[in-house]
Amino acid sequence: MAPRYLTKSRFKLALECPTKLYYTGNPEYADNAADNSFLAALAEGGYQVGALACAMFPGGIEIDDVGHAAQIERTRMLLQEEDVTIFEAALGAEGLFVRVDILRKTGNQIEIIEVKAKSFNPAVDADFRNTRGLLRPDWLPYLQDVAFQFHVATLAFPQFEFRSALMLADKSATTTVNGLNQRFQVQRQGRGLRVNVAPGTDATALGAPILVRVAVDDAVAELHASTVDVGVTQLPFADAAQYFATAYREERRLPSAPGSRCADCQFSTATPPAEGQPRSGFHECWSAAFGWTAADFADGTVLDLWNLRRKGELIARGVLKPKSITLEDLGHDDEEPGALGMTPRHRQWYQCHGGWPGGGDFYLAADGMRAAKREWRYPLHFIDFETCAVAIPFERGRRPYETIAFQFSHHVMHEDGRVEHRSQFLEATPGVDPCMPFLRALRQALSGDSGTVFRWATHENTVLNQLRRRLLSDPDPAQDAADLIAFIESITTRNEDGFQITAPRSMVDLCKLAERYFFHPATKGSSSLKKVLPALMRSSGVLRDIYGQPTYGSPAMRSLNLTQPMCWWIETEAGVCDPYDLLPPVFDDMSRDEMNAVAHSLPPELQEGGAAMSAYARLQFEQLEPAHRSAIERALLRYCELDTLAMVMAVQAWSGQNFQTPASLPIVRPHGA
């Protein structure tokens, strides 16, 4: 039987929650992270950054043997050389095992280099500490990773002197060559990837470094001298590693008190599983800690509450269910929303207790909506962007992780109610920087009139301001740079020298209107468009009347992508369908559940566009057949079109005279409402 090593990924899980060690790799338990590694790493640029880092050390030897024992032995043999660079060096000792991204041995000294697809700004990140001198939480997992590798290395080879470093994408650096990112293409291998580096990728082809090696010996020493939470007590770092290793080897469940971190547990199912279904670690933990039954979970937990920062404190006090929360717990009085609409605390309170001014199945502040609408000018324009931030730039002079805007969709609503999908843009040709063509197409789409432009949340405004700064700093500006800057400034809000500048035609944020004036229990407090749209579909007679027949995609309501008119309002035994579920998946070789797992693995601000980011990354870096590439592009166009149509639907529903809940429309209430 193969030894059960505590690897660095399992050590990381144990640091998050010691009980996770029992669940990880156990086929009896659901694991929502099991299928997301391929696309998540591709979308974040991890594979390409790793390959670029290795290319910076010519002559390095990769450990590609099969099996832990063979990998460890090959590494041991190579370390007998006086000087050697090893990629994926395998080190094992006392039940611990690591693969080191880059290991460099010079005489008796060994440097451990951990490569991360994370941006590093020398002026801000410096020594990874905050103003109080403490290691910053956003850097701590990376430093703990290196500290664990360092610990295993010293156990395996105590005769050597070790140093450690992180290799990161330097946001202050600019590439000096064109086409660098296309030198690192990827190839699917089962659930993973292999990077194929283009021939001739030498120092000249790489140009000036855009990755920086940052020594972390001081931080590692500090972590080694610190204690680690192992669930019921604190242990020194080395003892904690051995404690975790022993528990994992013995398949022993380590106790850990439930807390706010349970909200992100990957070993969880949506509801307590029935017999024969994968087990849910989350439900087992809470049942053991609080004596809960399946009926208790039906009422929801405080983890379900939107935007509440005090979940851990409430759980520690034994306040576990939304209906148990008081006004005092939220720091909220019982006043009704004022002229500016709901506050976040109103939304939290309504989510906890399922009651709001006026009763009914949802809350709509119609006066606030009407007041906002009086400021709008027709025709109304609805735009949505898809963007990413590539780690390795397209062109000379660009920096790692600059924003790349590669797609938009644009709907128009006329004063008489007519709706048309007027324009769209997608540029995903490998190696082509789409930003300037994107801006030119957007300017052309919006410059024909002075109608109000709508976005959902802050993303579009942020992206345009980032592109503005790029234009202003470009040493070789395009001929129309001044016109593009003027266009951006005409529809955005920005901060300059501490002052907010709002253009007369600045985009209107529909998400803010949803936050202030619309609450439906099915959204669980969120104002995300992908939560609001299904709730509107269940609640609006207007949307039922318009989209319950095959009107969209016909000459009466033009679509640029649908070849046949379709219904968006469809009712089944389970209720009214989420329109996003009516579209086929973006990838024909990955399920919708897998794509959702990818989105949840990304930072919160990127989750809405997770599918598009992943699709763009595949179009850029994966070798695809033309038919497969075309299918992904068509799917991207359809999804982005639905994003702007969803915004149109929101305005139609909020403006409709029969915005109500007809008896034929089922209302789906979340737990705790």
Q: What can you see in these coordinates?
A:
The protein is built from 24 helices and 21 strands. The protein has 673 residues and is of the alpha+beta class. The protein folds into 3 domains: 8-249, no CATH class; 270-363, no CATH class; 364-673, no CATH class. It has a 6-stranded mixed sheet, with helices on both faces. Strands 14-13-12-15-18 form a 5-stranded mixed sheet, with helices on both faces. The radius of gyration is 27 Å and the shape is globular.
Tell me the number of structural domains: 3
C-alpha-based Rg, rounded: 27 Å
β-strand amount? 15-25%
Record the strand order, biggest sheet. 1-2-3-4-5-8
Arithmetic mean of pLDDT? 89
Structural class: alpha+beta
Number of helical elements: 24
Distance between the termini: 50 Å
pLDDT < 50 runs, ≥5 residues = 598-607, 657-673
Q: Which outline best applies? A: globular
Helical content stands at: 25-40%
The major beta sheet can be summarized as: 6 strands, mixed
The count of DSSP E runs of length 2 or more, i.e. the number of strands, is: 21
